């Protein structure tokens, strides 16, 4: 007999329960409300969220101290035989006319050129620039007006919920600039890591950019213009982690929805029923 006292789910006697139209309406509304909240929680549980964090480190230690660069730029008024890529950095690298993994596509019946290159740079401050320095004969008035289609670093990272400056110079149009002007793009490169649900990591780089254009002179006269990309690396790494809501949190939310909804509905139904009974007694009192 004493064991039954531990039953906290005791049944309410049938003579203490009374079905009402109000209770039926509230019950239907509760079921619909619970269904709506359940579907909302289920959608949130199935979907993934992106959590980001910042820390100081070199995330891609297996890269050998290199960063892959993808450059795609059009110079509509400069012949392809004049266009070249030069790379310099503080480790002493000085390469003029880099040609590995690069391609030149003639434009405007050969009067212009589209340069596409895939190359690597060291993880130290430096620059790479598009110029005529590697040409066998320097032109008198090279036209450096251009359009940048793509400049990106590291792995290609296109994730729906991640919005960043991975290709900040895309669409940069300098066709209306002074043809004899040099262009300086000052880049601050930020290492970025994306970790998916399986734990696989991809390494990319975002960057901010500032630019200026100018016609440079020295004591010997006007300096041959070029398109400079001067870069430096930030010590801060941005990490995006793909996560899904834990199962225990989903179950807790569902229990809270069901229990909370029925508790509030019970209080509401009790208040309405009590007010209705009191109103009936008042009416009967008035009739007497």
From TrEMBL:
Keywords: Endoplasmic reticulum, ER-Golgi transport, Golgi apparatus, Membrane, Transmembrane, Transmembrane helix, Transport. The chain crosses the membrane at residues 20-39, 247-268. It is found in: Endoplasmic reticulum membrane; Endoplasmic reticulum-Golgi intermediate compartment membrane; Golgi apparatus membrane. It comes from the Eukaryota. GO terms for cellular component: COPII-coated ER to Golgi transport vesicle; endoplasmic reticulum membrane; endoplasmic reticulum-Golgi intermediate compartment membrane; Golgi membrane. It holds the Pfam family COPIIcoated_ERV. It is a multi-pass membrane protein. InterPro entries: Erv, Erv_C, Erv_N. Its main location: endoplasmic reticulum. Residues 105-269 form the Endoplasmic reticulum vesicle transporter C-terminal domain. Residues 5-95 form the Endoplasmic reticulum vesicle transporter N-terminal domain. GO terms for biological process: endoplasmic reticulum to Golgi vesicle-mediated transport; retrograde vesicle-mediated transport, Golgi to endoplasmic reticulum. Coiled coil: none annotated. Signal peptide: none annotated. Plays a role in transport between endoplasmic reticulum and Golgi. Belongs to the ERGIC family. This is Endoplasmic reticulum-Golgi intermediate compartment protein. It comes from Furnarius figulus.
């Amino acid at each position: 007999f004493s064991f039954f006292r531990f039953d906290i789910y005791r049944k309410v006697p049938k003579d203490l329960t009374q079905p009402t139209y109000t209770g039926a309406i509230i019950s239907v509304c509760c079921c619909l409300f619970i269904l709506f909240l359940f579907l909302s929680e289920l959608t949130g549980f199935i979907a993934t969220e992106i959590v980001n964090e910042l820390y100081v480190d070199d995330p891609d230690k297996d890269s050998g101290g290199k960063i892959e660069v993808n450059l795609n730029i059009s110079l509509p008024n400069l012949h392809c035989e004049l266009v070249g890529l030069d790379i310099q950095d503080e480790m002493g690298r000085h390469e003029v006319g880099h040609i590995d993994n690069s391609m030149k596509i003639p434009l405007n019946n050969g009067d212009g050129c589209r340069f596409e290159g895939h190359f690597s740079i060291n993880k130290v401050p430096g620059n790479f620039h598009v110029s005529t320095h590697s040409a066998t004969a320097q032109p008198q008035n090279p036209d450096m007006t251009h359009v940048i289609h793509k400049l990106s670093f590291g792995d290609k990272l296109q994730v729906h919920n991640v919005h960043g400056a991975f290709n900040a110079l895309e669409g940069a149009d300098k066709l209306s600039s002074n043809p004899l002007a040099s262009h300086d793009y000052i880049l601050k490169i930020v290492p970025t890591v994306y970790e998916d649900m399986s734990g696989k990591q991809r390494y990319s780089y975002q960057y901010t950019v500032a630019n200026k254009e100018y016609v440079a002179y020295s004591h010997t006269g006007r300096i041959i213009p070029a398109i400079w990309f001067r870069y430096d690396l930030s010590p801060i790494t941005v990490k995006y982690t793909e996560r899904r809501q834990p199962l225990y949190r989903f179950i807790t939310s569902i229990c809270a929805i069901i229990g909370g909804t029925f508790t509030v509905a019970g209080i509401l139904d009790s208040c309405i029923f009590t007010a209705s009974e009191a109103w009936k007694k008042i009416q009967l009192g008035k009739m007497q």
